[in-house]
């Protein structure tokens, strides 16, 4: 398990790869054996194992052995942590965009008043 103080870095590094994101997308539909997770990709079994290890080390998935199957489960807690961090920035940007819209609308309104006073048609 990653160091809690650096867990977001580990999570975002794991999410940076499209193959790992595709594996997480599949696991969001339910648990799956490793063979099923590997099927859509044209990469070697060791490469899939490395991707799964990165996801597990980031706390995004859990792997278990069930008889002869290696089953993977999504662990949504790590994604919630990343979402919480991103949410702060989403709120910041939405606030900035709201202020920009208000400024543009105010500026347009003031320009329209000025044009009317000067008899300029828009």
Properties at a glance:
3-stranded antiparallel beta sheet, single chain, 11% strand, mainly alpha, 3 strands, 122 residues, 66% helix, Arc Repressor Mutant, subunit A
The CATH topology label of the domain at 4-76 is Arc Repressor Mutant, subunit A
Strand content: 5-15%
**What percent of residues adopt helix (DSSP H or I)?**
55-70%
What is the number of helical segments per DSSP (H or I, 4+ residues)?
5
Q: Which homologous superfamily in CATH is the superfamily of the domain at 4-76? A: Winged helix-like DNA-binding domain superfamily/Winged helix DNA-binding domain
CATH structural architecture of the domain at 4-76: Orthogonal Bundle
First-last Cα distance: 63 Å
**How large, in whole angstroms, is the Cα Rg?**
24 Å
Give, in order, the helices and strands.
HHEHHEEH
- What ranges have pLDDT less than 50 throughout 5 or more consecutive residues? none
Morphology call: elongated
Number of strands: 3
């Amino acid at each position: 398990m990653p160091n809690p103080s650096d867990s977001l870095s580990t999570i975002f590094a794991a999410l940076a790869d499209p193959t790992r994101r595709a594996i997480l997308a599949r696991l969001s539909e339910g648990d799956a054996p490793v063979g099923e997770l590997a099927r859509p990709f044209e990469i070697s079994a060791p490469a899939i194992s490395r991707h799964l290890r990165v996801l597990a080390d980031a706390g995004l998935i859990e792997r278990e052995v069930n008889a002869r199957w290696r089953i993977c489960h999504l662990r949504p807690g790590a994604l919630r942590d990343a979402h919480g961090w991103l949410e702060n920035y989403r709120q910041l940007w939405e606030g900035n965009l709201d202020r920009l819209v208000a400024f543009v609308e105010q500026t347009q309104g003031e320009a329209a008043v000025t044009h009317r006073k000067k008899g300029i048609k828009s």
